[in-house]
Amino acid sequence: MKTGRPLRVGVMISGRGSNLQALLEACAGADFPARIVLVVSNRADAPGLSLAQAAGVPVKVLPHRDFASRDAFDAAVSEAFESVAVELICMAGFMRLLSAGFVERWRDRLINIHPALLPAFKGLDTHRRALAAGAKEHGCTVHYVRHEMDSGPVIGQAAVPVLPGDSADTLAARVLEAEHRLYPHCLRLIAEGRVRVRGETAEIMAKGAPT
Ligand code: GAR
User: Fold this and answer.
1) Cβ–Cβ < 8 Å for 158, 184
2) Which atom of ligand 1 lies nearest, measured to the CA of 48?
3) What confidence tens digit (pLDDT) does each residue in 25-56 have?
């Protein structure tokens, strides 16, 4: 995905939007190779919407309950992004499962951040489960999305220590700081054309390597 102009990115959110904010800040950099052109939320009350608006980025609210089926909702999301020529979708705290059709339509153009070192701790409540398992390291993963939940070629991961006395909240806060560094880093790698998906593996190429 290297075109000589900034990559056109769409972001999907459901809530707070702190990862969206990290991506907005990165994309505001003059030399950053991507631009966020639309933020879609399935919730009208998502706090992240105002972060996008404050950055001058258009938003679209598509409440999933307004649609008769998951396929109808997913089709509306696709149309919203396609109408502004989005080339890559970043899911940033988007908390709904997507249909197989949507995932296929955006295959290798749809990425997600998950608050665990996949394949460990897929699903929800990852910080509490990492503590309960006695994990000594935890972290976050940015990956291409496949239909099976929280699976797909890994683009990047960041690990943090689990410290004595951690609660799920203190651990979540440490992971979230790592998320805010990892997601812009992975977006840059893709926008610079340095990520190649081969089967179920993402290969990262060195800067300046032939593509
Ligand atoms: C983040 O921790 C993200 O990794 C997680 O939701 C949070 C959203 O926070 N995503 C998932 O759990 C997806 N399965 P944010 O709205 O502040 O970015």
Assistant:
1) no
2) 16
3) 999 999 999 999 999 999 999 999 999 999 99
Query: Domain extents for the chain?
Result: 7-204
Measured in Å, residue 211 CA sits from the centre of ligand 1 at: 32
**6 C-alpha to ligand 1 centroid (Å):** 25
pLDDT in tens, 129-156: 999 999 999 999 999 999 999 999 999 9
| CB-based contact 19:46 (threshold 8 Å) | no
**Residue 185 known to be catalytic:** no
Interval 102-136: pLDDT, tens: 999 999 999 999 999 999 999 999 999 999 999 99
Task: State the CATH class of domain 7-204.
Answer: alpha beta
Residue 99 — φ and ψ, nearest 5°? -70, 160
* Among candidate residues 19, 66, 10, 85, the one with its CA nearest the CA of residue 40: 10
